[in-house]
Each structure stands twice: as C-alpha cells, then as structure tokens.
Structure prediction request, 607 residues.
Amino acid sequence: MFPTRANLLRASSRVDINVLVPIKRCIDYAVKVRVNPDGKGVDNTVKHSMNPFDEIAVEEAIRLREKNKDLVDSITAITVGPQKAQDTLRTALAMGADKAIHVQVGDQHNVEPLQVAKTLKHFINRDKFELVLMGKQAIDGDENATGQMLAGLLDCGQATFASSLQIADGKATVTREIDGGLETVQGNLPMIVTTDLRLNEPRYASLPNIMKAKKKPIESVKETELPFDLKNRLETVKVAEPAQRTGGQKVDSVDDVVQKMKEKGLI
Amino acid sequence: MFRLARAATRAPRTARPLSTTPPTRDALLYLEHRDGKLNAGTLSALTAAQKVNGKVVGVIAGSESISSAIDSARRLPLSRLLVAHSEQYDHHPPSTLAPLLKTLMEKDDSLTHLFAAHTAVGKNVLPRAAALLDTSIIADILSLEDGGEVFTRGIYAGNAISTVKSGESRKVVSVRATAFDGADSSSSDQVVVEEVAPVQVKDHAPHVSEEMTLTARPDLGSAARVVSGGRALKSAENFGSIIEPLADSLGAAIGASRAAVDSGYADNSLQVGQTGKIVAPELYMAIGISGAIQHLAGMKDSKLIVAVNKDPEAPIFQIADVGLVGDLFQVVPELTKKLS
Prediction:
C-alpha cells in the first residue's frame, strides 16, 4: 500500500511548488561590446550566452529541488527572445529544468521589461507557478525591473537581490543585499525572487545532461498568439560610444604618484 | 508695472501651439531616508527632477520616527512635501509603497514624472510602481533633455550610451546619483507639509531583520575619495592592513572589486562595479585591481583614477590617469607614509 500523493500532501501539510525561471539570451559577459557605426545599436554578431544572473536563478531552482525532493514539483524555464534563444533554453534544461516555454520575437526586438513582465504574468495565470526565480538584471539592458514589475502586476510578494533563499511551510524567507548591508524579508508564496551574485555558484551542464536536454519539451509560442502586443514603449533615438578617458599615463615611482595628486589639489 | 512685465514675458508663450505645452508637468520625487537622514542619492535625483519643469513635489513615508528626515526635507527646493505617516512604510517595502506612489500620481494630473534615486530602495520600489501605472521604466539615467522627454542611460555595463525618448503620459525615472550634483538642502524657507492618507494594502513580504555593516568612514556611494582593493591583496588581513591605512590617510571610503568580495577579503556592500555600487569620486585608487569590464562600469566616471598593479598589461592602466606598475605590498605602505 503506497500512500497516494494526496495523502502525502495532507499528512505533511506541505505544498508542492512549481517554479518558473525566466531567462534571457544576452551578449556574453566577457565580450567587449561595440557600438554600430550607424548609431542604432551594438554589434550583435558576437558570442551570446545566458544572462549570468539567470544562471544563478536556474541553479537555485535546481538546488531547492535537490535539498528537498518533495518541495519542488516542476521547474520551467521561459524566455522571450529570437529563434536563437532556444539554445539558451536548452542550457537551462541541461542544467536541470524540466521543460521550457519560448515566446518567439523578431531577431532585432529587445522586448522591454514591462512587456516581458506581462508575458510572464500570462503564463503564470495559465500554468500556476508558486515561485518565480529570476535574475536581478540582464547585463544588456541593465534595467533591473522585470521581476519587480511582474510582482506588481500579480500583486504578490517580491524579494529582490537575494543572497539566500529558504522555503518552508509555504513561506519564503529571503536575505536581500541592500545598500550598507543585508535585509531579511519573509512572505507567503507566491513570490517573485530576483537573484544577486552571491546566491550561489551555477553548475556546468554535463555532456549526458546536454544530450538529455535535447529530448525535453520546449513549447513554442509566437508573440502574435499573446492577447497583448510586445511593442516597445520607448523609442531608442541613438546608441553611442561612451566618452573615452584619456588615461594610460604611467609613472615610475611613488613620489610621482604623490606629485600628480598634489597637482590635482587632492593633497 | 509688474503685471505689464509679466504679460510681456508671457506673450511669446501663447504663440506656441497648445498641444505641445501641457499646462503643467511637475515631478513627484520619492524621498529615501534612513535613520532620520535623507539619502544623498535622493538629492541628486531632485536635481534631475527639477530639469522637467522646475517644480518638484516630494513624498516621504514612514512611521513617527521619520520626523528628523521630514525636517531635512523641508529645507529642500520642493514645491510641496507630501508625508504619509504609517508603520507600513518603514524599511521602504515595495508592496505598500508602489500603490501609494501610484495613487499620488493618479490623483494629481499635474504630476507627469515619478523620480527616485537608483539605489537598492529605488530599484526595488520604482519598477513596481511603473507596472501599476502601466508605464515603462527609464532606469539609471545619466541625463535628461527636452523637459523630461528624452533621456540617456548606460547599457551593456556602460559600454554604450543609449538615448531614449518616451511618449508615455507618465514617466517613471530612476537617477544615477553620481551623474547629477546634489540639490541644495539648506533653504531657510521651510516647505509646507501636507499629510496624505496611507494606502491600506497588504505587505506581501514584510521586513524581518537587517544586518548593517558599521563603518566610521564616508559612505562609498557618495564619498569624494575612494580606495579600492582587488584580488591581488591575497587575504582579508592584507586588505585590512594595506587598504585601510591608505584610505584613512586620505579620508577616503573603501571599495573592493568583485574578486576581492567573492574571495572574502571585503564585505559585499563595498563592491564597486556593474553589480555593486557605481561611484564617481574626485579620486579613485585601484589597488591590485586588473580592471574587468564589470568593475570599470562602476568607477570609470571618477575624476582622477590612480592604479597600482604589478601587471603592466592590466586593463585598468588603459583608463588610469596615473598608473604605477609595482608590487602593492611595497608601494602602498610607502604611499601611505608619504601621504600621512
């Protein structure tokens, strides 16, 4: 006589949670980006990879399940991006996510945080996720907004810049990195948690897992199938190189350093 | 006489088409505070907000303990100061603050812009408020033009500057503190305080506790001088014995690279870079920091950058105004001695 799942749930009063992990395909963090001469954007023909903060989010979702097998029911990765963003979803699947959703947009369309948040809300309402783990910011747009916007749209709890996460009895306890120290907040699920760098060290996908990931399901959705549009609200007038510093001067001794600081009136 | 003069200056204005000049376009500024003091970044955000129309309405929220922050806020160049007294606003919780900001914005048609500093608090609260107002966020701006229609901001860790135009009726903007001078906070004309009713909503993720890093040194985000250490210091002990005396001799705040923080040499609140603090002091000293893109994004707008590194090829030397190739364990104590 094996206990049924329903009995187990009743006995432990534990709630199985479905985790949604939004990820973004970005220019690789190690690439020095170049502004296109037409002033319309940056050179996109370079190496791309998963946004580093999102890797941390995927890792945290997997660790939650590893720490307590009964806690996490499913891990779903989702992205809003061009055709090639499927590679990034495969990376998440190879790390340990179960399935993925790809909302496909045009190659040149960098969807703004508000429209991404609306898209995430759409799938959360459809599939019922109790926890959303996502990066605190994408390293291309640097907005640091999507998670907060999603929490606002859903009217649920948000815990941004997480450096530690614990889930017990349907509550999330999160330590957040704030200016000058750490803050701990606690709230009921559902909750949106955005990851900071120190939350964990993401794993590399092993070759067998990369092979297995090829068989995991990716649901593909066209942006036109959504009940709202993903048009950008902001118009990018131009993209330019930042002002260059005229640095590069070397001196020979500590005395020269002191002399330079004196010249600048600093001492 | 006075009336005539006013009429004369007004005349050209009426010639402009009415549609392009809305009657008023004021900014609402969220005033961040801690321990009864206003956040320095908020004063920079005020300068940015003034560029919309000149008139800025401040809003401050919290329990009775915010009275000294209110006293400081009354000396700012604000047209009005709104105060929402409630414990539900202590520790700047986004669940309760975002609905308050939304309500205040929607109640007053003259408010077209919502501003806050791009601090941990501003980043946490403002996007949520923007979503409630169904408007995009213009995050971490470096400048604004055309009365708050056009903005510049860094993308790709500051390796490109994007100019964006917003056609939204309400604009939500967070401001990079180091890109604007702080507003004058010493006015003798005190702004009149208007109490506003708190918006009663559930705090979905209430504050439990906090652990602040205590320091007698200047605040990293607003210090005029910063001494930062990197991985080359090799240990937390070295970080303390090499970086701290140099910082003290200059009256500087202490910063660190991500490598130094991740290795446990320094607290993570000291991290300078894209993922930590963005600083732009008069003097930035990079000690044993190679100068990864992510670090440069956090300090390259400093006025004078001094770098000490034993690797002559380290990228930090490409942007340093004064570079010294040498062993930091010899050079820095010598420098400290000569500065004291």
